[in-house]
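Box 3.1. Reading complex inputs
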Amino acid sequence: MSLIHPIQAVVSNRSGELIFAVLKNVIIAYRYDQTNGKYLEMGKWEDQFSRDEMIKIAVVKEQARQLAENEEKGIKKSKTNEGNTIEKKHDAKIPVPGPGAPPIYSQIRNLMISNDETMLLACADSDKSVLVFKIETLNNDNCLKLIKRQPFPKRPNAITITEDDKTVIIADKFGDVYSMLIESPVIENIDEEFEPILGHVSMLTGVLSTTNNGMKFVMTSDRDEHIKISHFPQSYIVDKWLFGHKEFVSSICIPSWNSNILVSAGGDHGIFLWDWIKGEKLDEFDFTDLVLPYINENHLAPDRFQNEENDLKEFAVSKLVSLPNNPYFAFFVEATKLLIILEVDQSTYKMKLLQKIVLPYYITFISTFSDDKTMGFNISLDNRESGDKDFVKFIALDTTSNTFSIKEEQSDEFNTSIVNSFSKEDSIVKVELDEVYPLYNIISLKKHGEHYS
Amino acid sequence: MDLRNPNRDPNSRRVLYRTNKEENRKELKHVKIDESTLAQEGKKLDLPKKRFYRQRAHSNPFSDHQLDYPTSPDDMNWSKLFPHYYDSTTGKMTKDVTIADIGCGFGGLLIDLSPAFPEDLILGMEIRVQVTNYVEDRIIALRTNHAKDYQYQNINVIRGNAMKFLPNFFQRAQLSKMFFCFPDPHFKQRKHKARIITNTLLSEYAYVLKDNGVIYTITDVEDLHNWMVKHLEEHPLFERYDKEWEDNDKCVQIMRNATEEGKKVERKKGDKFVACFRRLPNPAIV
């Protein structure tokens, strides 16, 4: 029996009225209609870029390079028995994956909305590109208009946008950070024409940009426990590192209610709160005991790192978000059902548990909404066992009781809309159970010191 | 016997030699070597033999190696590397490391810099395990054999990946000199990011160097020399020293003649390309 692919990412504008979700290689947009409480489909975009084409281009390019190199070195062309030279020319062949080759997933990552809420940004794995969409709220056919698709040499792993919404900063899997003006034309030969503005010798996991005291900064986090703060646009001047993590960093955020604070999490079993201006760690919140009851067989370490008892479990924070106007953070550990909400004391900067919320399935993503009327979290779930229910849960703050709770009715309405959008059997996001994209890959960033010499 | 892995034969001379040296290292690596140690030992230590420390010439700087590095520069225990400069009454070091030799190889430069800069602590960083062991054994032997006048107390080596973890060891503006001697050329285009001088890494080197600190580079590969010069000249925080400065600088002389690679190039009558750069002060922040 086929199912609608679980949602990998969900974001909304500040009011929570416009919602964008990623299913497989599709982005879909909905608008919440206040009058009838329903979600209307506003637009859809599918990544149809074929990786085969890219491989073919790469193969042709490599062949041309080898031919040129042979020419230069004066290597003789092969000869037939009669002594005639023959020009060997092959069509570029697209390599066909052999049996047991890992499947290719055209993931869409790093979904985010610009500060002025007129653009949606994302990254496509297929051609390692950054996608910029204009959100045309008045276009009833499709509100998502792709205005830029810029491929990068290595896969973008995290992106952010500057406060003026003019520049996207891209951190890639190879450790390089690029800055791209949205309005500039697409660069074809990105390898030759684009220089990174800064870099780590490590996979990058997060990037932020912020302004403090009239100075602009870029923060980057990596697999080697580092959080680096550089000036911007003078990104060649490193301001400082924030040292303290002992495992990889997977998620960093700066709350808008206090831009001197940076919060980070990852493979360590604690949430770190920093005064990044001073470069000091102010607090660490250990979540081990909270999370342990929710750790399951998905967290067993890979065989080659497993202990003799076969019970070594490894887990890490997948994502950490902060509410823009209130001193609350929320995070979840990968492959758990538990959402943890923390409150920060704004005078002592100590974190304490505000609330735990158990979701019906494992959480795959979290984002926030917040305006003067409402605030809370958009949560997507690994609902593959649910029979096409519970794709998303909206969690909102009840200001009278100061507690967060799941908005069941609204969440159900959204789920109905998803089913309506994708219920047809031939829908691109209909998959078999074993075709679901990998949803849990943060823990694979954990280092085990595999290489000795 | 598997020739690529001589450790499989537990009685090979190399394994016996390495085991013996490892025990020696364990005992002496972090010990304050002075006349009393010498009296106990009563004999001179032989310098290590390079042929027992062979290993692959390259190491992938992107790999997940088993490395020891401090969480931050504040956590670094320098007393273990430079016990002679540790004041046990205050619990503090009397000096900080100010010179770093990145990719120090077999340690030739360290050993020649030691007497030339007696007031500085000099650290070599090397990513290859056996090569690091060799340098450690060499320093242990030299310290022991010169215990009377406390020579070679100001140099040491750590096994590490400077491309990833340099800022874990050094504070901002801690270093006055950094050496990059005969680095791995990484000829292939797609491996250029693995080179030790890239525009992104230079920003990190600039962070640990103080104003007017010097980056020294030397290589026998002209392409790599041009690459390093290009990137250093393009970087806003570095400015090249002229030929006259190079000719009058004692480090350039030592670097040209001291390193094992330098000697090898000398024997083969190859070229040596030198370039030195001054760390400029940060410009005004815009």
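In summary: Chain B touches chain A through 43 residues (CB under 8 Å).
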